[in-house]
Structure formats: structure tokens, C-alpha cells
Protein 1
Amino acid sequence: MKNYLVFDAGGTFTKYALMDENAEILEKDKVPTPDYHTKTKEDYYAVLDSVVEKYRNRIEGIAISMPGMLDNRNGYCVTAGYLAYLAGSTVGTELSQRYGIPVSVENDGKCAALAEFWRGSLKGCTNGAVVVIGTGVAGGIILNGKLFRGNHFTAGEYSYVCTEAKEPAEMDSYWGMISGAEGLAKIVAKHTGEDWKIYDGLKIFGLANEGDEKVLAGLREFTDRLAVQIYNLNIYLDLDIIAIGGGISRQPLLHEYLQKSLDEVMKNIPLRKITPYVPEPKLTKCQFYNDANLIGALYHFMNKSFCSENIQFPKQG
């Protein structure tokens, strides 16, 4: 059985796991991600070095999930989210040369979609999508049984969708803000009259599950906004199923409220007076939570043809 080292690079921590080809996690841990304000690409690579050194003689390759718009063929990062020091770098090729073994790099939202398509909630579907609610809104799209990346590898970058045409210069006018963690906090705070910065997902759902009416009203406004964008996504792509992921997707109350919001959207579509049939999105939960990006990154690695990239791997010494 072959083993692989898989990284999930986040802004605060970089998780890693030793995994076999069946996606079983044999070992798992995390290391702090160097701060992009003060550190450099070489600082980040040094963090990876410390992990790779532990497993160098046990692995056949390295798979990486990371934020940003990137060319999955060679790991070139156009943008890199909170890992800004990696922008403009061909990370996959550089690390392949550094370690002397194949290295693959894929966008984190797309990794989540691949994980669900391989072994989770999208398994067996032809057309589906994953919507990951986190700091922003990430995700991936499966079309005709394959991950759809688009001409510039940016398909599924939901955070960039403008939701307020009258104020396109405002950050809060984009899906990544209104439906991410900060957006949820701001909407709830509007109903409670408190500073939004005191809220995080744990506090919001703790209060919501206790029946706090103001927090529940904020949650409903949040899911109403989210439901509209999910409706739009389904109209664009006519999907079999849409899986909701991210930390707050563990909360049954989120799914309950989101389904109610979506039902309300569908009930009130005025176009039904002209065309009675309007396709309704089918929602489900993502099966994988914190491990989704690791599993999807491994799937991407195992389905990647390294020989087509003309990368020369030096012998390990």
C-alpha cells in the first residue's frame, strides 16, 4: 500500500496527514502557518521542510490543498489567499524539485468538491456542487462527472460573486462576505444591537439552539440570502445536488433554516405564473468536514499525470 503526505494550507494553520491510497488517515497534525504580513515564501517552505523530513522515506508523493486561484497542472498561484507570499510562484514545480518527488497543488474549495465526489455526498452524481461556508464562501463544481475549473481555473470562486449591484465597490456586496463567518456575525449583530466582533459561529449557534429570538431572526436573514445564491447557482448549472460544507454545516439548525429559506424562495418566484416548472435545488450535507480538503487533495494527486509536465525529479540522497 502506497502512502502520501497531504497538506491543507490555511491562513492560521497548515494541517497535514500521512494517508494511504484509500484515503485512510494514518497520522495527522498541524503546524502554524507563517503570517503573510511579516514572513516570506521561504519561511513557508521551511515549515513544510520540517514536516516532509519526518516522512521522506515513507511517501510516494505530496498533495497540497491551498486557497487562491491557481493552475492545478503545475501549481502556479495567481493568487494565494492568506498565503500571499506564494502568489506568482509555481509552487508545485518548485516543491517537486525541492523534495525530489511528485507534488500536486489544487484549490481548497475544489479539493472539497473532489472529496465529496470521490467518497462523499456527491458520489455517483453527474452534475453537482459543493458550497463551503467558512471565512468566505468556497466550493467546487462537478459537471459531466468531472471537476469543472474554467478557462482561468476560477470556476467555483463563489466569494467573488457580486450580490449588490448598487454598491460594487463595497466588500459587503460580495457573496464571500455576506455568507461567510463575518457576514453571519454582522447580520446577527444587526438584530441584537451588539458589536458583531463579539460573535463567532460557536456563540451564534449556542444562542440560536437555546432559542434566542433575535439571534434566530439574524440566522434566518442569513439563510434567506444564502438561499437566493444557491437558487441562482442551480439555475445556472441545473445540478443534481448541492452539498453544504464548512464548520457551521455541522449545525442541524443551519440546514433546517436554509431549507425553509429555499422553500420560501421557490414559493414566491413570480416567473412561475408564466412557467410553472422552475428547477428546485436539492440540498444535502457534506460528508467530510475538516478532512475534506485532505481527501480531495489526495484524489487530485492520484488522478494527475505527472509525466505530461516534463518535471525532472532528482534522486533522493
Note: The longest strand covers residues 13-20.
Protein 2
Amino acid sequence: AGEMGTTVTLTWTVPDPDGTGPCQGSSDQVAITFNPAATANANIDQVICAGSTVTLAGSVGGSATSGTWTSSGTGTFSPGVTTLTAVYTPSAADITAGTVTLTLTTNDPAGPCPAVSDQMVITINPAPTITLGANPTVCQGTTSASLPYTATTGTPNQYSIDYNAAANTAGFVDVTNATLAASPITLVVPAGVAAGTYNATLTVRNSTTGCVSSVYNITVTVNPVATANANIDQTICAGSTVTLAGSVGGGATSGTWTSSGTGTFSPGATTLTAVYTPSAADITAGTVTLTLTTNDPAGPCPAVSDQMVITINPAATANANIDQVICAGST
């Protein structure tokens, strides 16, 4: 047999029949041309995650000069099916099916050699997902927050949290590939962190396939605690009043006074600077405790209270007794 791409000439010779007569021997030739076979190599099978693409690395050889890709699915080739190093983007149907077979077929060379094909299989692992509940809101001073989630796909078993720069500065710490247990995800809130909103991104991962979800945006809200200040204790004389100087702050927007006695607030108990007039019973008791309680702020922070004590001293009295008439020289 001749070598690839070469021509071999065969000669058939018939000798002189008797070597002496008038008849001469004869010969004839035939040329055999060996055309190289076409070759196609679609390259090795690949495993990817849903949402990824595949950069192909096909090749053709022998008598083939070009190749064309076809897909068993409905994905697309970029820039086109005749580019051996095209990028294949699986379609939604390909992802649902979980696999797609790509076939590289050569052109049909001139001559007797046929076109040939080779295949590669792309296995598409699903990207894991979770269904998040509401973003967490905690009260200032709370050191953890709960981020609930429900349904999952793609069997995620790890999660990562990437806080933005402001949150990192405030003391929030990023998390990388922590174990994803039963709902909820527990988020660590730094002790002493200021009230505000802190943004982060969450991803979940299947550690077996290495597939990662799309990014979830999350926000941790830290509400300010309510504060109440009834101000300092006071001492008054019976018959006097007390001008209050209460204040509220943090998450509180208002406050209400109550009394352990039966005195009155003017113009009312919701005025932080009300005037308190002790009752006769308050004066008899000698003390009365006033309590300033904030409103209950929206969210997880509760109402708070503060107290002040009014001590009521009895008023001083003097009695010189009755007028008298005496004689000069008497005492």
C-alpha cells in the first residue's frame, strides 16, 4: 500500500511467449492515488453549571478543510456553527434536559473519502437557588439576625455573604462557604454597631458540583433603641408644683407620664414638660414617683421607661398664740 497523499504506479508485464518468435512481450500500467481520510475531533466531554457557556476546541484534518457544529439541543454557537472554536450557549431547554450533544462534521472532501463526524457531550448541572424571606430587622444591641429561606433547588449546602464596604467598616464580617443548615441563616451583628441599614450580597453553592447561585441582595436593618429620661429627682415644699423636663430619643417619638400618686399633669400626661401638681394624698405620703414611658417604636425595639421621685416636705408653720393685755411692770 502507498503512503497517504501519494500515487503508486503498478506495471503489468506479459513476456515474449517463447522468447524466440516474432511475437513480442507486452506491458501496461495503472496508477493508484491514495487520498487521505478526513478526520474530526470535537474534543473531550465537558461538565458545566447552568448559566455558563462552553468554549469549543474542535479540529479537522486529513483531507478535510472545514467543519460544522450541530447540537442535539437548541443552544447557540457564537460567532457561528462553522467556527471550530465557537462558544456554545446552552438554551433553557438544554439546561432542563441536563445534557446536550454537540457534533462536529467535516466538509465532504473531493474524491472518494467521505465526510466524518465526532461528538462531545456537555453535562449541565443546575445552579442552586433558595427562596428568601423578608430581610431581617433587629434592635440595636442584638448580636444576631435571622435570614429565613424556604424552597431550594440544585441542593445548595454552602452559603457566602459579602458585605459592602460601609458594613465592613461597621464591623460586619464576610462569610465564605459556610454550611447551609436548616432555615434560617443566622447573621452575626457586631456588638455596639450603630443604628442603620447594612447591605450585602448572598450566594449559595453546591460543594459537590461547584455550581453557585446568582447573587441575592440582602439588607440588615439595625433599629435604634428607644430612650427615656425623666430627669433628676426633686424636693419641694407642700403646696408647690414641679415643672417636669422629660425627654425621649432613639427610636421613640413621644412619651407619657404616669404617677404613683393622684396628682395631676398640666396640660396633660403626654407633654414632656408638663407641670405636676401633687394631690393632698401625695403630700400626706411625702413622696410620689413619676414614670416617663416612651411610645412603642415600629419594629423589634420595645418601649422603655425612666423614673423620678418627688419628695414633698411639709410646709413650715408658726403660731405666736393669742394677743394679750397686761399692766405696766408685768411680764
Note: The CA atoms of residues 151 and 260 lie 53 Å apart.
Protein 3
Amino acid sequence: SPRIRFMSKKKVFLIDGNSFCYRAYFAIKELSNSKGQPTNAIYGFITMLNRIIEAEKPDYIAVTFDLKGPTFRHRIYEEYKINRKPMPDELVSQLEPIKKILSYYNIMIFEKEGFEADDVLATISKRLSAGNLVDIYIVTGDKDILQLVDNNIRVYNTHKDGLIYDIETVKRDFGVEPTGITDLIA
């Protein structure tokens, strides 16, 4: 009789690049190269990326970034994020080197004009989750993304030393199902 071989699901890590960059930038202060160019976000980003690769051994990794410019939300509501401070220039100057380094790792970068990195993360993760073939880990510190948690999607929280939110952890920590996160935050 033929043997049935069960294989474990592949692990996909989808990293919110902007969240990762901010985390790295503010975690390490005043690091620069011999020319005085800031490198703290670059160093921190790569250190955190390597830590995830070594500890979690993902089968696939992708990173999303926000593009400069308005999103569809700005067309709906002109004052969307109007009080948010712009990204510090020292961090902006490190984005392209980070993206270049990601290309050396052969890590795909996804960006879409008119959409935030979170929107791209949501689209990719929901499409992958529908096939029920992979375990998806969204790497971010953004609580809004917890609304996506389901049987195939988890959130790997960068602010809490790799705390992984699954359905039960969301319910325990927030008192609502993942689908209730938007109401809770609102």
C-alpha cells in the first residue's frame, strides 16, 4: 500500500519594513560610518532580520515598505495622519541601503503606490492563508494588523521580543477575537 507522507506547512515571514526600520532606528542611537552617514537603522534592521532567520528558520521571507506619497485613505479623509511626524531624515537616508542589502539576501520587497505597507501585508497574507498551505507570520509592532490573525496567520511582535500572537493570544491579551480588534482600537 502506498505510504502517505505528511509534510509540515512552510513558514512565511512577511516583515513590515517601516515598522522594522523605526524599531531599529530608535533602538540604536548615534551609529554612523567613517563618512558620518548614519547607519543605526541599517545595522539594527539587519541584526533583527538575522535573528529571525536564525531563530525561526523561515522558508520564505518578504518585506513591505510604504512609498512616499498619499494613499487611498488620504483621498477619503484629507486629515489622515496629519498629526504624524514625518520620518526623520537620518532614517530616510538609510532606507535605500536597507533595500539594497535585502536584494543581496534575495528577499523580495513589495510596495504599491497609494497603499501602505500594512495594506500590502494584509493582501499577501490573506491570499496565502486562503490556500491553507503555509503558516504566515507578519512581523510588526502595529496592533492594527492583529485583525488578520486566523488559523494560518500569526503576528510576530517585534516590540515584545518575538511574542507571537495567535487567535488565543489575541483573545487573552485584548479580550476580543481578532475580528474585534478594529472596534477595540477605534
Note: The chain has a mean pLDDT of 88.
